[in-house]
Amino acid sequence: MEQLQNKVAELFEKGTISMMIGFQNAIGKGAVPCFLDSASQVKLLIYNDLCKNNLAVYLHKPEVKEAKKIGIISNVATLRSILQLLSENQLWSLELTIMTFNSAHELIVFESIKDVEHYVQANFPELTDEEKELIEKINAMSRQERWEYWKDLYSTCIKCYACRAVCPMCYCPQCTVECNQPQWIKVTAETSGNMEWHTMRAMHLAGRCINCGECGRICPVGIPVHLLTAKMNLDIKKEFGAQTGFSSSNSYALNTYNPNDKEGFIR
Amino acid sequence: MSQFEPKIVAFVCNWCTYAGADLAGTSRAKYATNVRIIRFPCTGRIDFMLLIKAFQNGTDGIIISGCHPNDCHYTSGNFHARRRWMVFRSLIEFMGFDTDRITFSWVSAAEGAKWADLVNEVTDKVRALGPFTEFKNIDYNSFNQLDNGAITK
B76, B49 in Cβ contact below 8 A? Predict the structure, then answer.
């Protein structure tokens, strides 16, 4: 912890960063993200197992873009988000200083994006056992059972769009749900509109989602929304060999093609 | 009781399948009248949301058709569309959608007969499946639970 605070203070004094995105203590809530803009505040910074948020989502905020020189403390999911965002040319205006704690709790300050890539590739995460089990469980159901399973879950959705707000890949200035001519997604939180929303969200994240699982963790009614994109990532990896958040020069699986793609359903 | 006549929406590309359907017409091929054709510039233009909207507005089956691979007027539109369909199909299958009601096909401008066969075949298949009520009833069902059956379909 002190290691991190000292390092951040040093970076502030050197002028390497003008804003630090990290975590601070929150009474009763564990840890919440915080934004520092001077060395005098570094005592606030903490880093422990409760620091779960994917901080990459803040890199799109206008206040952060304005600060320009950004320090960010990351876990592997955040590093993957940053790589994916770099491959989508979203962070070109920022000068990032990326930090992480490795498994031995040592602070690493990455010198270049290449180092981030090597680190991510060496520590590439798999789906958790819980996620794998749920996907297998759903796959084993009959079609009607799957429909009922998701329908019951979607009927509880309150359309708060927390899954969108928390997603580092959802950065469109105008989202399709806000489009009302035509009205693609129903405004009210009824099951059919909820289903449209979740289908659309999953499709727009297909091949871009980095499986951080934030959307499922944040859902106030407990819909495992992250399973949809996780399942699609598995399929995309199987069919096209593409993996998201693997390097800063990823190509988007649905934005490219291979004339030899194999499919068995087109007649 | 009269036979159930399904409504089928066909999303087709302007350059191949639309011309193919035109050929079926000019060569006087007879095929089922259940299909409503919607013309698109290219299969690459067919947004997956359009399919969902079609189902929501009461279609019983969907045909999506365009140029054969390597024949796209815009060189690569159908390759992109194919990838999107592969991903989309696996997603809606995972969500429990009835994928039997969506038929993907390649029909070229010269294949008027194939188009007629395709429409007949899909019409028969969807007729056998019956009306698509799953999506239509989805909201009524949730209302029914609340109102104890006060609102019926």
Answer: no
- Residue B27: the pLDDT is 94
* Alpha helical stretches, state H, B27-150: 48-56, 77-94, 112-129, 137-147
- What residue ranges define each of the domains in chain B, with the CATH number in brackets? 8-147 (3.40.50)
What's the angle, vertex CA A149, arms to CA A145 and CA A150, rounded to 5? 125
Of A199, A228, A258, which is closest to B52 when you measure between CB atoms? A199
Contacts of B50 in chain A (CB under 8 A): none
Residue from B97, B98, B138, B145 whose CB has the most chain A CBs within 10 Å, to mutate: B138
The ipTM assigned to this model is: 0.88
Q: Note the pLDDT tens digit of each residue in B109-147.
A: 999 999 999 999 999 999 999 998 888 777 765 554 444
Give the separation between CA B121 and CA B119, rounded to whole angstroms. 5
Substitution target in A153, A176, A257 with the highest count of B β-carbons within 10 Å is A257
Q: Which residues pair with A183 in a beta bridge?
A: A180
Kindly report the nearest CA distance between residue A89 and chain B, in angstroms.
Answer: 21
